[in-house]
Design brief:
Layout lengths: L1 E8 L3 H8 L2 H7 L3 E8 L2 E10 L2 E15 L3 E10 L2 E13 L5 E12 L7 H27 L26
Antiparallel strand pairs: 1-7, 2-3, 3-4, 4-5, 5-6, 6-7
């Protein structure tokens, strides 16, 4: 299955690059990570439980960064094994400066699943893969926002008085 898309972030390209190239931060946004081990900056492993419909597929996945041109491009390969499935995946992203200091990301992924799970066919697997990709991209948005210092991380804590005090000069206020 080949997937591709674009995403915009309200953060600098450097911030987005750091999140996308940090194995630990990526482990936080991947669905179903049960354990994670960084071997070096180009190799890491994860044990995951991939949600598949009613159940989940446990896989051991080895990741390898194949190529990178900081701060604009990286390519990653993942090989996973589990009961009833073998997975090979290559992903790549291209970052560019966006409007207002933000970042535009163009991404692509080629996912191949073999074995009994892979035999379910693309018609069955495509919606599951699409949902997981959307979950990862949504989690990536949150991770980038945290790394950029947005919201509570910027110093306004939800329980602080300044979070609730009305702005006397704000819109609709006398």
């Amino acid at each position: 299955m080949k997937l591709e898309g674009t995403r915009s972030f309200a953060a600098s390209r450097g911030t987005v690059w750091e999140v996308l190239n940090s194995p630990r931060q990526m482990a936080e946004i991947m669905p179903g990570v049960e354990s994670f081990d960084v071997q070096d900056e180009r190799h890491w492993r994860a044990n995951v439980k991939i949600p598949l419909g009613l159940g989940g597929l446990r896989m051991a996945i080895a990741f390898e960064k194949l190529e990178q041109r900081q701060p604009e491009f990286a390519k990653l390969q993942a090989k996973g094994t589990g009961v009833g499935a073998l997975m090979n995946m290559e992903t790549a992203f291209q970052l560019a400066d966006g409007e207002g200091g933000g970042t535009e990301m163009r991404w692509e992924a080629d996912v191949r699943i073999a074995g009994p799970v892979g035999s379910m066919g693309q018609r069955v697997l495509q919606p599951i893969v699409n949902q997981q990709v959307e979950n990862v991209l949504t989690a990536l948005d949150r991770q980038v926002q945290r790394a950029a210092g947005g919201g509570a991380e910027a110093g306004v804590q939800p329980a602080s008085a300044e979070a609730y005090e009305p702005d006397a000069e704000g819109p609709g206020r006398p």
